[in-house]
């Protein structure tokens, strides 16, 4: 099915947005390394890898439908974090932005009657619910331990066990 031009551009924009997310997670990993939270750092690196997979999933969809994929200049906001809590709050606020972008893609797909993108967009809708939930849970756990350094290191150790997906 031929793809609507505006929708194709929006999908291409999403490829770039997912690469931007990968860079933001990489930056957060560097910040956490500075704070000696190496498990959380590795969690962020694993998340950055997952974001590159998301970018590829959107790129594959465009390529499969005969469209070009164009990478553009990608801005990385300056992120300086002073605590684990701040790092994960940045992550959550970024995920919420991405979720809204995915919903916007769904709205455009509906508007232009693009049925062929339905399964890939549904996959992303579920993925965003999962991603927001997992970051929210980490934030809650970090809040629970508060100023307890041993508790924070325990969470750090657990997050470092994350399997690369
Ligand atoms: Fe690709 Fe974390 O959204």
How many discrete domains? 1
Write the element-wise H/E pattern from the N-terminal end onward.
Answer: HHHHH
Shape verdict? elongated
- Low-pLDDT ranges: none
Helix content: over 70%
CATH H-level name... which superfamily? Ferritin, core subunit, four-helix bundle
Largest sheet: none
Total strands: the figure is 0
Gap between N and C termini: 31 Å
Q: Which molecules other than protein and nucleic acid are bound?
A: MU-OXO-diiron
Q: Beta-sheet strand percentage?
A: under 5%
Gyration radius, in Å? 17 Å
CATH topology annotation = Ferritin
How many helices? The count is 5
Q: Which structural class is indicated by helix and strand composition?
A: mainly alpha
Set out the fold topology.
Blueprint: H1 5-34, H2 38-64, H3 84-112, H4 118-145, H5 149-159
Helix pairs in contact: 1-2, 1-3, 2-5, 3-4, 4-5
The structure holds MU-OXO-diiron.
List keywords for this structure.
elongated; binds MU-OXO-diiron; mainly alpha; 165 residues; Ferritin
Polypeptide structure, described:
The protein is mainly alpha-helical and 165 residues long. It has one domain: Ferritin, core subunit, four-helix bundle (Ferritin, Up-down Bundle), CATH 1.20.1260.10. The chain starts with a helix and ends in a 6-residue tail after the last helix. The protein contains five helices and no strands.
Provide a compact summary of the structure.
The protein is built from five helices and no strands.
